[in-house]
Design goal:
The strands form 3 sheets. Strands 1, 4, 5, 6, 7, 8, 9, 10 and 11 form a 9-stranded mixed sheet that branches. The protein is about 35% helix and about 30% strand. It starts with a strand and ends with a helix. The chain has a single domain, classed as Rossmann fold, CATH 3.40.50.2020. The longest helix has 19 residues, at about 25-45. The chain is an alpha/beta fold. The protein is built from 6 helices and 13 strands. The chain has helices spanning about 10-20, 25-45, 80-90, 140-150, 165-175, 200-205; strands spanning about 5, 50-55, 60-65, 70-80, 95, 100-105, 110-115, 125-130, 135, 155-160, 180-185, 185-190, 195. The model has no long low-confidence stretch (mean pLDDT about 95). Helix 1 (about 10-20) packs antiparallel against helix 2 (about 25-45).
Length: about 210
């Protein structure tokens, strides 16, 4: 059974508060998104396995710890998820990066895949799906389904801001996926935006409207 972890660190709360400000420019917004992604990655990788290795310090030989060779991948959901990749790679630089692009069909309102490029061995990797906003959960759930169809067995989902509706959607569709959230907000409004939220993350990251 997957778990839901909402961060309670003061630095994360402070940085989320900065992101919410309408006056914050794209450069600063991108930087803070990356910083929060690093915090989320730190928590999401807490279960990685270690092994003992013999090393030599400037003083003597000793036993140290290193990651036991687990293959990792970061998969942003386009386009806003791209804003979290740099922060993730700062923490796990050896990870491969895949990309999933989805759009919402205006008639059915269901997510439609328009791009998918994953590491050839993604089925052997532990995958971290990243998207700053978890609103209805439709696109995120579809991306996770796509990964499972490609043979991925261990998936984590990381987001900056989530609505309860989106969390419920992921838990219902993918009860085996761990969810890491910087801030859990109140609700979705009638337009599907998270309240209080921070607006459209993609537009704010890339300076578009």
């Amino acid at each position: 059974m997957g778990k839901v972890q909402v961060m309670d660190h003061p630095l994360i709360a402070h940085k989320v508060g900065m992101l919410r400000r309408e006056s914050l420019g794209s450069k600063e917004f991108r930087a803070i998104i990356g910083e929060i992604a690093m915090f989320l990655c730190y928590e999401a990788t807490r279960g990685l396995k270690l092994r003992d290795v013999r090393i030599k310090t400037p003083i003597c030989e000793t036993t140290a710890k290193e990651l036991s060779g687990k293959k990792l991948a970061v998969v942003p959901i386009l386009r806003a998820g791209l804003g979290m990749v740099e922060g993730m790679l700062a923490m796990i630089p050896a990870a491969k990066v895949g990309h999933i692009g989805l759009y919402r069909d205006p008639e059915t309102l269901k997510p439609v895949e328009y791009y998918c490029k994953l590491p050839a061995d993604c089925g052997e990797r532990e995958v971290f799906v990243v998207d700053p906003m978890l609103a209805t959960g439709g696109s995120s759930s579809a991306a996770i389904t796509l990964l499972k169809e490609k043979g991925v067995r261990k998936i984590h989902f990381l987001c900056i801001i989530a609505a309860p509706e989106g969390v419920e959607k992921i838990l219902k569709d993918h009860p085996d996926v761990d969810i890491y959230i910087a801030a859990l907000d109140e609700k979705l409004n009638e337009h599907g935006y998270i309240v209080p939220g921070l607006g459209d993350a993609g537009d704010r990251i890339f300076g578009t409207k």
